[in-house]
Design a protein that fits this description.
CATH class: Alpha Beta
CATH architecture: 3-Layer(aba) Sandwich
Distance between the termini: 43 Å
Order of helices and strands: EHHEEEHEH
Radius of gyration: 15 Å
Number of domains: 1
Largest sheet: 5 strands, mixed
Strand content: 15-25%
Strand order of the largest sheet: 1-2-3-4-5
Helix content: 25-40%
Number of strands: 5
CATH superfamily: Gcn5-related N-acetyltransferase (GNAT)
């Protein structure tokens, strides 16, 4: 595991693509609508967030390939797990737990008192987060007008 530098964010595209595929396969109402914006735009925002000190990204690599990553955002005493992704072929390896422990350490070291994570509807990751003490706080309903 290591933290990613802002200039390395392009290495995360494969993980983002797999996440979009996953969301498109499990989403009940928004299937086929992921990603919400082009991968290049997301990666550019990651680069800006790391360079500006707002975000940190930890990666797990195998043979030079990113197998998973976690992106944390911190604003004052509030933190967010913006992304936590482990490639399908690496799930069950403990990588998700390793990335989550890293995130929780980052939040503790930064004095974060409230942590938020958003999970796409249909994603079974809710069970994973609940193991760490996360509880549902709200249901965000959305409608796209065409």
């Amino acid at each position: 595991m290591r933290e990613l530098a802002s200039g390395e964010v392009y290495m995360l595209e494969e993980c983002l693509r797999e996440l979009a595929e996953h969301h498109n396969s499990v989403s009940v109402y928004f299937r086929g609508q992921y990603p919400k914006k082009p991968f290049g735009d997301t990666l550019a925002s990651f680069e800006k967030d790391i360079a500006g000190g707002r975000s940190r990204i930890c990666v797990i690599e195998n043979d030079g390939r990113i197998s998973g990553f976690c992106k944390t955002d911190i604003t004052g005493a509030s933190g967010a797990i913006d992304y936590l992704i482990v490639l399908r072929e690496c799930r069950g390896s403990g990588y998700g737990n390793m990335l989550m422990e890293w995130a929780m350490d980052v939040f503790a070291q930064s004095g974060v008192r409230t942590i938020e994570v958003k999970v796409a509807d249909g994603n079974n990751a809710i069970d994973f987060y609940e193991k760490y003490g996360f509880k549902p706080n709200a249901h965000i309903l959305r409608m796209d007008i065409k």
